[in-house]
Amino acid sequence: MEFLFVLTQSNSGMFRVLGPIAKALGYLMNGIYVLLNNAFNIQNIALTIIIFTIVVYLCLLPLTYQQQKFSKMSQIMNPEIQAVQKKYKNRRDSVSVQAMNEETQAIYRKYGVNPSGSCIFMVIQLLILFPLYRVIYNVPAYVTSVKETFTDVVNNIMATTGYESTMQNFLTTVADKNSVFRGIALNFDGDATATADSIIDVLYKCTSDNWALLGKTFSGFSDVISSTQSAVEHFNNFLGASIVYSPKVLISTSFHEGHFFLILIGILIPIISAATQFLNIRLMPQQASAGGQQEAMASQMKMMNYFMPIYSFFIVFFLPIGVGIYWIAGALIRVVQQIVINKRLDKIDLAKLVKENEAKNAAKEKARIEKKGVSGQTISNAARINARQIDNQKRKTMADKANAASKKSSGYSNDGKKFKEGSMAAKANKVREYNERNTK
């Protein structure tokens, strides 16, 4: 998925759908940067990312709550669902399957849970979080003030004869030693704007050594390169480290320069990222399995939950620090949200909840029936009459069976004929009854 690592805005592939969402999030991030600059004279991408992440996750809070509510309710109602599954165990005929599904759906309605709700909430969140990650990774494409910082140096580069091959050689050289350039490519086949954007893609990821090399490569305007470098390093600064560095590159560079504090930052960022992911997972209520295939899926999900912190450590170690800041900020926000949500879910009155859901379901059923042109009262009366008829039929059947059993025990045949006590017919009847009992 190379498109994830291209800084310029893209409308190809998945981003034909997600592009508009990414642009909307980009407007938000640009607004936060401009607000910090105008109100507090702060030009800092790291702080912008943190505030941006907080705002987005607060907007996602209603979806997060609904998803966690589903997980909590699944834990409570799971014994009832398992009882239904046990009741119809090894019964695969269509009638039994339909009955099991109806009873299961009744349990979901009882607790006010949509069985597909968790998946829907997850899809909605992913549709937002994928573009969100793109905006975090592709800051110049969405924050106008950052992009404008590169205008002078890019214009000078494109005015240089043979700049295409020079820039391509430069990218090949710097990408060989820095994994953050992976997936970034120069575009010389499009118009001037597309070419300029691709050059910004490269320059935004440059380290101090890369800027020094660029100054030597385009020595005719090294002063413009130097001033651009200063501006970029200013707004990319986070505790003395540039957020375009990956922890791997930061540790390697700082070790040679003797900057041990920066080495510590490079070590702590992936560790904190993994730790916060793990803490978030531990606080999250796990959706209870209902046996069978769902139990296998729950087991796989549990393995994924413990794999995610490890994945977080390695991905943050090789990606720019800015991405690590986003991951940590997001995980910490989710931890706070989870604590609040858990307290709220623990206060749920189940009896009241069930009663409210029963009332809602009854109202919906009445509305559905009346929509078909039949009054709810008529249907209700018919249902009561039908129930009485079924009950009477059951009682009659049970009475007939009891009467038959009574006759047999008194020496009657199946047709009600009385046998003389001690006769051969009476003895034969007793033998028949004995055989029937043993056969059963």
What does this structure look like?
The chain has 440 residues and is mostly helical. The chain contains 19 helices and 2 strands. The protein has a two-stranded antiparallel ribbon. Strand 1 and strand 2 form a beta hairpin. Helix 2 (45-59) packs parallel to helix 16, helix 3 (61-87) crosses helix 16 and helix 14 (260-283) runs antiparallel to helix 15 (292-318). The longest helix has 34 residues, at 376-409. It starts with 14 loop residues before the first helix and ends with a helix.
Shape: elongated
Helix content: over 70%
Task: Please trace the helix and strand order, writing H or E for each element.
Answer: HHHHHHHHHHHHEEHHHHHHH
Strand order of the largest sheet: 1-2
The radius of gyration is: 35 Å
Main sheet attributes: strand count, strand direction, barrel closure: 2 strands, antiparallel
Counted beta strands: 2
Mean pLDDT, rounded to whole units?
78
Proportion of β residues? Answer: under 5%
Number of helices: 19
Q: Any low-confidence stretches, pLDDT <50, length ≥5? A: 1-7, 412-416
Distance between the termini: 67 Å
Global structural class: mainly alpha
Question: Which features would summarize this protein structure in a list?
Answer:
single chain; 440 residues; mainly alpha; two-stranded antiparallel ribbon; 19 helices; 2 strands
